[in-house]
Design brief:
The complex is a heterodimer. Chain A is mostly helical. Chain A has six helices and one strand, in the order ααβαααα. Chain A is globular, with a radius of gyration of 17 Å. The radius of gyration of chain B is 18 Å and the shape is globular. Classes of the chains: A mainly alpha, B mainly alpha. At the A-B interface, helix 1, helix 2, strand 1, helix 3 and helix 4 of A face strand 1, helix 1, helix 2, helix 3 and helix 4 of B.
């Protein structure tokens, strides 16, 4: 049980990364998506930097037989492409473009006490619960 | 097209921190750092599972709080970028939140789960998700910035 507290450290690093990257500013996200107007390419570097770092880190980590604190690594990589993936991602993208928030940065903004982020996260949780109940997702 | 507010150095450093966090979580706990799943699965699963997710999110809040306090430029927060009249702001935020919450569960991930972890693992599923959510986001922004607002004047 005490091992669970090691989740705090990666969380801390994730929060620092999100805040440093500037992705907690909705305008930077919306400007990234505004390819024909005022374009801010920063998000591409955030995603690229994270992707390259994790791709290398993942290869090194998966040389181990099991995670350091026990348990097992995730099952094989999922390649399944279906209607739920496409429709869900389209709905997510629409909301992302509307407000300039995706889940990580929206939660990080709670640390700054922004009421806009609070309203967004509350609605997001309702949407998540709705999808879980309607489609029976995320059952343990 | 005009390039604005480009912050390549802080963006890349922030990205490396996010990727390192995901690698650390995998190494320690064997878990994937997808933020939509992290929040959504606070409500499902075993007690132990819920606790470590809550602890991760508390760490995320602490990391963001430290950075906001230490580094002024990262405090920049411009929620009016959406360009809607201010009286519609809260309605737009709620609609956007519902779409993001529902969509990320149905699609099984967001910018971190699909965009970083899934794509780094070479998942075709994640590549499709990223192409679809970026296209949808760009289409929505194009509509309200360059079609709707242009007509209102």
């Amino acid at each position: 049980m005490s091992k669970l507290w090691f989740a705090f450290l990666p969380g801390l690093l994730f929060g620092i990364g999100l805040a440093l990257s500037g992705m907690t500013d909705p305008a930077k996200v919306v400007n990234f998506l505004d390819f024909t107007g005022t374009w801010d390419p920063s998000l591409a570097l955030v995603m690229g930097g994270a992707l390259v770092t994790f791709a290398i880190g993942r290869r090194l980590v998966l040389r181990r037989r099991a995670p350091i604190l026990g348990g097992s690594f995730p099952r094989a990589v999922n390649h399944r492409i279906d209607a739920r993936l496409v429709i869900g991602s389209a709905l997510f993208g629409a909301g992302w473009g509307l407000a300039g928030f995706c889940p990580g940065p929206a939660v990080a903004n709670l640390a700054a006490g922004h009421l806009e982020a609070l309203a967004f996260v509350a609605a997001m949780v309702v949407g998540m619960r709705g999808a879980q109940l309607v489609f029976g997702l995320d059952r343990a | 097209m005009t390039i604005v507010d480009f912050t390549p150095v802080s963006a890349a450093i922030g990205g490396v921190c996010i990727g390192a966090s995901a690698a650390l979580l995998l190494a320690l706990n064997g878990k994937i750092a997808g933020m939509s799943g992290m929040v959504a699965r606070l409500f499902t699963g075993t007690v132990g599972d819920r606790i470590w997710r809550a602890v991760f999110l508390l760490g995320l809040l602490a990391g963001a709080a430290i950075t906001f306090a230490a580094w002024d430029p990262s405090k920049v927060f411009r929620p009016d970028a959406m360009g809607f009249a201010s009286e519609h702001r809260w309605a737009v935020l709620v609609v956007a939140g519902l779409l993001v919450g529902f969509g990320t569960r149905l699609g099984g991930g967001c910018t971190s789960g699909h965009g970083v972890c899934g794509m780094a693992a070479g998942s075709r599923r994640s590549v499709v998700a990223v192409l679809v959510f970026m296209a949808a986001g760009a289409a929505v922004v194009y509509f309200y910035r360059h079609v709707a607002l242009a007509q209102i004047g």
